[in-house]
Amino acid sequence: MNAIAAYSGALLETLNRAFDTQADALREGARLLKEATLGGRNIFAFGCSHAILPMLEMYYRTGGMATINPVRAPGLCLDVDPATMTSAMERMRDYGRVIVDGQPLGAGDVIIVHSVSGRNSVSIDVALRAKEKGAKVIVLTNLAMSRAVTSRHPDGVKLYEVGDVVIDNCGCLGDAAIDVPGVPEKVAPTSTAVGAALMNAMMAQAVADIVDAGGVPPVFVSANVDGGDEHNREMLKRYGSHIFYM
Q1: What tens-digit pLDDT sequence spans the chain (246 residues)?
Q2: In terms of CB atoms within 10 Å, which end of the chain has fewer, N or C?
Q3: What is the DSSP letter of 90?
Q4: pTM of the entire structure?
Q5: Do residues 210 and 38 touch, judged by C-beta distance below 8 A?
Q6: Helix crossing, 3-21 with 23-38: angle to 10°?
């Protein structure tokens, strides 16, 4: 079996389907990012376990918006051993509310919440508490999977039911994408690669929208090109009041 070709085919098919079907949602998410930026508000990004990875891709990143702040809660960022603790902690009731209350998040802000299954309490409570505080919520999830599983939240809600904007990564049930003969489980997930691509596309559209509105987008350049440090210092100076990770 050529597993490399099988995975690349599955990944490209998923990626193309996501971009074909999620263009409107990506533009709506970009609009929220633009409005938060031009309105002097803040932007946050959250995920549990591997769902944090596309969120981390967006922050302090070459070609990315300097104002996207990761929310890295203790025990949820693959930062504990045994790793199974993360799976247990993302199911904890009300921890998500504690996480949001520990952030400078308020009315008019935007938070991106990523969960492939959208079933666990922490991510759902992050979204619910953010909305209670007047923030807009952009959800990145796998709708096929989320609709196929039961909620673990005490109110029976799922993450996609909470979002102001919902972006579907168009993955398959269970996320892993290919069958290998002789192996009962599927292998090779798509959510990280597709999620990162979708988030970068949404961010890029937000940058374009900010320019179209006459603003100066908060974009970092590589610190490894000549002039990069100087440019980034200017971005930090201009937008420093909306950057909480420095």
Answers
A1: 999 999 999 999 999 999 999 999 999 999 999 999 999 999 999 999 999 999 999 999 999 999 999 999 999 998 889 999 899 999 999 999 999 999 999 999 999 999 999 999 999 999 999 999 999 999 999 999 999 999 999 999 999 999 999 999 999 999 999 999 999 999 999 999 999 999 999 999 999 999 999 999 999 999 999 999 999 999 999 999 999 998
A2: C
A3: T
A4: 0.96
A5: yes
A6: 60
